[in-house]
Task: inverse folding
C-alpha cells in the first residue's frame, strides 16, 4: 500500500487535483464579470484564462494598428502585464473586455510614438521590411500592405487607432469611443477624418486602389 501511495499519490491528492482542474474549467466558461472579479482577487488561474480569452483580440489589434514591421509578441505581453497590474482599478467588472481594449489602444499609441522617435534618430529598421510570416501573400499584397501602413503613418495617433478599430476590427462607434476614452461624436469625427485621409492617399497610390474598394464596401456594410 505504501508503494502504491508513493507511485500514485495519496488518496486526498486526487480529489484535490480534480477539484482544481474543475475550478479552472469553470472559470474558463465564466463570463467576463466573473473573470474580472477573480483577477482582482488574485485567483492564480485567472491570468491564464484572461490570456486565453483575450490574447487573440489584443494580438490582432496590435498587428492591424502597428503594421508588418512590428513583432508584436513582446507588446502583447506588455498589455497583459499592464492588465494584471491595473485590473484592481476596473470599476465595472462587466467592462473587462473594454478595459483590455483600452489598454491595448494606449499601448498602440505609445508604440507609434516610439517608432516615430526611432525613425527620427535613425534607429528603426527599413520601412521596406516585409511581413514574411504572412502565408501565401503575393508580392502585390505585401506591397499594398506596406503602402497602406505608410498612409496610416501620415495620420495622427488617435485618428489612426479609431480607423483601425472601426473599419478593420469592425467595432461599433460606441466601442471605439470607449477604447479611446472619448465621446461617441468625437470617435465618429476621428474615424471619419481618418477615412478621408486614407482615401485621399489611396486614390493616388496604384497599390492601394483595390484595397480601398474593399474598405469602401466594408464601411458601407458597417455603417449604422
Result:
Amino acid at each position: 500500500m505504501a508503494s502504491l501511495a508513493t507511485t500514485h499519490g495519496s488518496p486526498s491528492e486526487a480529489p484535490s487535483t480534480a477539484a482544481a482542474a474543475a475550478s479552472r474549467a469553470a472559470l474558463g466558461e465564466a463570463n467576463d464579470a466573473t473573470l474580472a472579479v477573480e483577477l482582482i482577487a488574485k485567483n492564480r488561474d485567472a491570468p491564464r484564462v484572461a490570456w486565453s480569452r483575450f490574447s487573440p483580440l489584443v494580438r490582432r489589434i496590435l498587428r492591424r494598428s502597428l503594421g508588418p514591421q512590428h513583432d508584436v509578441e513582446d507588446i502583447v505581453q506588455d498589455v497583459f502585464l499592464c492588465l494584471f497590474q491595473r485590473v484592481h482599478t476596473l470599476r465595472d467588472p462587466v467592462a473587462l473586455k473594454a478595459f483590455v481594449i483600452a489598454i491595448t489602444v494606449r499601448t498602440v499609441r505609445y508604440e507609434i510614438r516610439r517608432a516615430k522617435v526611432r525613425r527620427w534618430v535613425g534607429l528603426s529598421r527599413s520601412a521596406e521590411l516585409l511581413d514574411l510570416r504572412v502565408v501565401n501573400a503575393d508580392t502585390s499584397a505585401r506591397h499594398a500592405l506596406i503602402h497602406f501602413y505608410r498612409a496610416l503613418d501620415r495620420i495622427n495617433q488617435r485618428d489612426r487607432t479609431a480607423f483601425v478599430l472601426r473599419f478593420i476590427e469592425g467595432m461599433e462607434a460606441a466601442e471605439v469611443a470607449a477604447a479611446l476614452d472619448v465621446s461617441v461624436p468625437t470617435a465618429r469625427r476621428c474615424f471619419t477624418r481618418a477615412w478621408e485621409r486614407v482615401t485621399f492617399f489611396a486614390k493616388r497610390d496604384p497599390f492601394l486602389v483595390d484595397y480601398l474598394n474593399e474598405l469602401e464596401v466594408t464601411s458601407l456594410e458597417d455603417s449604422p
About this structure: The chain has two domains: 18-129, 130-224. Residues 18-129 form a domain with the Rna Polymerase Sigma Factor; Chain: A fold (CATH 1.10.1740.10). Residues 68 and 211 are 16 Å apart (CA to CA). The radius of gyration is 22 Å.
